[in-house]
Design goal:
Elements lengths: L9 H15 L10 H8 L3 H13 L3 E4 L3 E4 L7 H11 L3 H22 L1 H4 L2 H13 L4 H11 L3 H13 L10 H16 L2 H20 L1
Antiparallel strand pairs: 1-2
Helix pairs in contact: 2-3, 4-9, 5-8, 5-9, 5-11, 7-10, 10-11
Length: 215
Amino acid sequence: MQNPKQTKMFLEIVGELRLLIKKEGIKAGGKLPSERVLAETLQVGRSSVREALRSLELLGLIETRRGEGTFLADFKKHQLVEVLSTFIMQQPNSQLDVNRTRMIHEEAAVSVICEEPSLRQLPVWDGFVVKLQVEGAVRREDIIREMIVATENRLSLKIWFLLKQYSKIPLDVKMSKEENQLVGQFLFHLMKGEKILALLAYRQWIERIEGERME
């Protein structure tokens, strides 16, 4: 049986990291303990710690320096985590709002890509099409993340990544063969710049994913 401590939610791990940072008196610019030490201290798996740290880094709360370790950024400049986590814990319908807000960022990315020829021609889309047709092993999250990355809107990416962490729909999984066909159509319309059809295919895709949660 899996240890329940290994399945702590992202929010719990981030919260415990913040308490640890405060307890240890780590200031902005100070070095955080290693992944191994954090995993042992928080009693969670290293993969869970690594995911939490990666999320905090994308949000600008920490920074990783190759060969040196992970360092704390200035929390006063980055209050998004606290604001969103407080909202989610206090509002009864917050989960629905989180998913809707996440979709707003995703749909905006689809629109921007369709309207900009240089973005439609990025090789990453052809790469996904090839993987869908040949390998059939693409993670949902990878496609959606690359859409937002393509817009070069770093704020939108940070907000989306955080919203994804709180979202309860399964994005961090590989798609089925049936799903591949639907996503292939979406990518086709995206690369053609057919915004209305691309958005329609995207919404059908997300509805399919959300349906899995209801099963």
